[in-house]
Amino acid sequence: MTELSKDLVEALKSIVFDCNWQYVGDVSQFTPLKCYKFYSLDEEDQDILLIRDNKDNFYAIDSRCSHEGGPLEDGDIEELGDKLLVICPWHSFDFDIKDGSSSTGLKQQTYETRVVNNNLYINTPYSVSLNRNCQETTDQMNKLSNELNENLKLKEETGENTLSYWAVKILNTSDPHEKARLTNLVAEKWFNNQIESVGHKVPPEQPSRPENLTIIDPGKIRRGKGGTLASRVALLHSLANIEQWAMDLSWDIIARFSSVEFPDGSKLPNDFFSDFVKVARDESKHFILLEKRLKELGSYFGALAVHNGLWESATTTKSNFLSRLAIVHMVHEARGLDVHPQTRLRFFNQNDHDSVSLLDVLYEDEITHVAAGLKWFEYACKKYNFEFIETFQEMVKKFFKGYLKPPFDTKGRNIAGMTEEWYLPLIKPSQVKNDVNELATNSNRQVAAQ
What we know:
This is Rieske domain-containing protein. This protein is an alpha+beta fold. The protein contains 13 helices and 11 strands. It folds into 2 domains: 133 residues, Rieske [2Fe-2S] iron-sulphur domain (Rieske Iron-sulfur Protein, 3-layer Sandwich); 297 residues, no CATH class. The strands form 3 sheets. A 5-stranded antiparallel sheet has the order 8-4-3-2-11. A 3-stranded antiparallel sheet has the order 1-10-9. A 3-stranded antiparallel sheet has the order 5-6-7, with no helix packed on it.
């Protein structure tokens, strides 16, 4: 075991053996200089305020002002020299978030925090949650600590430390938050050369999903047009579901095609696996950001029904490397670019600028994902001595249901390297005449939402 693993195990032991440590989330969930209130699920008036400073330190104090019980989570955060203060909104009492002291002489209870492998813990005897009266969330958080310990123990017992092993482990992880956390952990290990090799493990026929997640036919999903809060929540929830599947699709191509051999006897280089580990890490980031936004809007992932339409394409292409790249990592990823302008405009028109900024992050990353799919599709075609565009179009006609639908985001597609000759011939013939107008409309929407 490496020194890093020893340190991690020792840190986890101290947390597991001290039952007062409560897991509260991945550090990426918490924006610097923003107040996060954790509700106590065991005792009243034991809620905790969490604040992250600009140096990535975390501080936790009682959320109720020790003066007259004002809600500190609604107060301002001010920097005064080397102090970071939270100001009570009722009577402007100030409290140093580091030690709970106040210029008024009052004292606020503070709680020790700890970060272990990007997981944040608060030392409190009470179970806490970002959602009031949400025991399921707390149970889920406790489960994450246990599963991480089990994963490390399993690694020690099996001695396996290959990328394919971890890919299958993630595919078999049902909890999407744990799936995202493990994705970031494995990506860090891979890019720090702490994973021995790619290896080969047979992936499951379908990724694991939580029992309480309702999955229905794609045609029955109702997303709305973003004109109401409920509609915007539905759209964000749908995107979070897509990102969850996108994580799995990235790990599946890594595991399923890890032993691909080309006619010249060569196999996929490590750069291929690095590219798709990065894609998986991006998708996990997207899921975390979307779920955070859902919570800010009063919802959470799993509150609505979802579909597994994306995995149908994975099943169809499970035995053909070129078709997998073409359908999943080019057609579907590029479709994400196509719907961005209209989706962005819907949120923009409702003055939901936080969601607009989030959608822009997803969009920029998805361009690189299309580029990765295209890059390795061309690489494989060269190995097989196939013509790029002609082969792509053959794969789409054979493995994709129906025609490609305009309007297309030509700007994003061009940046990714997927120019019009790749996809315009795949439009339904009756739509070709309207395509120019639709592309212009798409472009106008982008300009309007800037």
